[in-house]
């Protein structure tokens, strides 16, 4: 069925291309180049690097699950008007791959953030359609490699503003390095034996790898597969056995998946609290404090540390 929807959208897309001109509100005809970003994390990076010298359109809003997202007709119009398209890749935007390939075929600059990271620094993924875990933004140092690559591609696409992009990018990378240092300091506050983050899906593998904590997700790497009763029981047993104080919901994954774990844990005689909401695959809404990438990093570590050290 997904296939049919994609096919229909491709037909719609062809119609848009034939009608030649269709601009979205973010792509004003102001003489600046148009950048289209898929996820909020990428859109935030491109906003920071562009700093007003280019138009940035972000396709996936707060709370939107990128694994399942099918591009809309207006998204296809935005792609069509883009000078440069930046996407996560590593099979994150699974329903967009055909359209992205088409755009590349039409000679547009298409940048895959994940491709900037050497294979030996990527985590493998056995549960979704790709070869690697796509959640690379949860390692700020690895994500920074993608930002360097996107900056270079933007500079080549718009050489007149190359110096502006360079300065903006360096400033933004320094802010990310500060956030990374903050996370390392904060995580030390959690006793080592319970430095375990339990969430709805396996979005924090790179976080675990980067910061030497354990991360367990109820679902696999992608939200395309549902958790089974056996998965719930297994996770609940781990929580009860290790006296884990808190588990976490994610903004882009339904709450019920983690509530079932809380209930199963209670039946094993261990009360675990839901420690709050983590932003895994999508940024937060405006004023949530997690509506930027750096805000998301800080929110996540603050929420995690507060819940794990609350008693
Ligand atoms: Zn995910």
Short description:
By secondary structure, the protein is an alpha/beta fold. The protein is 45% helix and 13% strand.
Write up this protein:
This protein is of the alpha/beta class and 311 residues long. It has 2 domains: 2-182, Rossmann fold; 184-308, Nitrogenase molybdenum iron protein domain (Rossmann fold, 3-Layer(aba) Sandwich). It is built from 10 helices and 8 strands. The protein has helices at residues 2-18, 40-50, 73-81, 97-105, 140-157, 162-187, 205-211, 229-242, 256-267, 293-308, and strands spanning 34-37, 55-58, 84-87, 109-112, 196-201, 214-219, 246-250, 273-278. A 4-stranded parallel sheet has the order 2-1-3-4, with helices on both faces. A two-stranded parallel sheet has the order 5-6. Zinc ion (ZN) is lined by residues 67, 135, 201, 203, 223, 280-281.
Question: Which helices and strands, and how do they pair?
Answer:
Elements: H1 2-18, E1 34-37, H2 40-50, E2 55-58, H3 73-81, E3 84-87, H4 97-105, E4 109-112, H5 140-157, H6 162-187, E5 196-201, H7 205-211, E6 214-219, H8 229-242, E7 246-250, H9 256-267, E8 273-278, H10 293-308
Parallel strand pairs: 1-2, 1-3, 3-4, 5-6, 7-8
Helix pairs in contact: 1-3, 2-6, 5-6, 6-10, 8-9
The chain binds zinc ion (ZN).
